[in-house]
Every structure is written in structure tokens, then in C-alpha cells.
Amino acid sequence: MAGSYCRVETRGRILIVTITRPDVMNALHRPANLELEAVFDGFARDPDLWVAIITGAGDRAFCAGNDLKYQAAGNDTTMPPTGFGGLTARFDLMKPVIAAVNGIALGGGFEIALACDLIVAARGANFGLPEPHVGLAATAGGLLRLAQQIPTKKAAEIILTARRVPAAEGEALGFVNALADTPAETLPAALALADRLLAGSPMAVRAAKELMLRAQDGDDLATLYARQRTYPAVRALYDSADRVEGPRAFAEKRKPVWTGR
């Protein structure tokens, strides 16, 4: 299915979202952000979709961030409630999302990638938060997430100097999970990673993601440990058919048939 600013397709349990504004390096303006918000709203609601991948059209850019020409023309640039790309402020999505970074990921594009759970990047891709050079700040989560995900001094250098980070360095720093040799190989690599996620119960994956995110909230370990089963995704796992199916399949020496329910 093609929208005005993105293309959406499904492969089994996987949703693939491709930003289709290659003429502006897949930069996003308000209409594109609203369209992506609607797409990820649908993904969150659909019980048959378990993993999402977001990528960019072409081989030059994943997303070059905010469409500055659109902004400079005086257009409305209000962010949707779920943030840039419909993802950066979406804090209640426990389904995993993979960024397939096929080219540059700058500003809001880097912020989208950082908001995803996993990042696969082409070796020629690079990342950066160039906002200081245009009198802005990366307030769609980039400053917060990068400082969480890599060592503080490294984050400070990247943020304050606004330099670009090659994909291989991103892997060394820990915010890139895997490298693909070419832009064309990025999506297949992301799909292979998604297949690995699908080998587990989607209910268990969501519970694991929620607990991992809760661990970043700052509560002490004893408090988090005591509250584990009170969180929504964890409660859903323990009430699910998947929780019964997993041990049964193990005992019967067969692959489990997950239902996500």
C-alpha cells in the first residue's frame, strides 16, 4: 500500500514501512509525520503484526530529518503526539521496531533510528545530530537517547560538535546492531533479524522489551524486581496461551506455534 509519503507492505507478521520522499533525502514535514503516525497506530493495534521495520527509499538516505525548506516557508511544523516519524514519543509500543538505515540518518532521522529497538545500517550510512548548525536542538529524543545508549563523553562529543558518525563507528559504540555491505542489503538484513525475533513468542518479546525499558526509568533494582509482573506486557504474557504453548512444545520436542494471544 502506498501513501503520499510512505509505502507500507506486510510479509507475514512483519510490517515494512518505507519513507518515500527521496527528492528531499526522505526528510519529513508535518503531513509525512502525520501519515507515519497513522501507520504505526495501525501497527500497534493489529494483533497479526508482530515486528515493524522502517527504512528509506533509494540508496542515499534513511531520513535527513526535518524538512527545513518546508519549515522556512512558514508552514505548520507541529509534531504529532507520537513524535517525529510517529515514533520518537511513542512510549507505549511494546512490539519491536527495527530501523534499516540505508543511507544518511541525520537530525530527526537519527532520532527515529534511536527510538527503534534495533538498528541495521549500511556500511556507507552515517548518523548525526546537526541541529546546532541550523540553530535548533534535537528535541525529538536524540539528545536524551544517545546519552543513554552510548558512553557519556562520546555522546557529548557527537552532540556538541554535530559531527557525523560512520555506521562502523556506530556499531563500535553500540547503537548499531549489525552492518550490511550495501544499501540494497540493509532491508534483507533487517528482515533476517526480524525473523530471529519471530522465533520467540511475541508475548514474551513484548514483556522483555517492557522490562528492559522500565529498567532505564531509574527505579532501584529491588523495586523493579518486585513490580515485574504488574506491568501490562508482563501480565499479558502470563495470561497468554503462548505461556502454555512454549513448555508444551519443548516437552513434545517440536517447534512452538505462537499465537500472540
From TrEMBL:
GO terms for biological process: fatty acid beta-oxidation. The keyword Translocase does not apply. Transmembrane segments: none annotated. One of its GO terms (molecular function) is lyase activity. The keyword Secreted does not apply. Pfam families: ECH_1. Keywords: Lipid metabolism, Lyase. CDD domains: crotonase-like. Belongs to the enoyl-CoA hydratase/isomerase family. This is Short chain enoyl-CoA hydratase. It comes from Aquabacter spiritensis.
